[in-house]
Request: fold
Amino acid sequence: MYVNGVRQEAGRDFDRLGDELLFRRELAQEGKLGPIRWLSMLLGVAGTYRKHETVDVVYETGGRRTVANLTPS
Reply:
């Protein structure tokens, strides 16, 4: 399990409850951009540098290694 490419350990960084993963800290998600922010990006004045974390789960199925990209909710 990785968050932004950093390995996470079960029992230290997250817990598994059935089919759910419960992280011990809040994962940041970029919110919706307002019209002023969109305009500034369109004009090349500013970009968006908000924190947005991704979760990648690496697992094996049928002898093949697979990576699933999850979106925190």
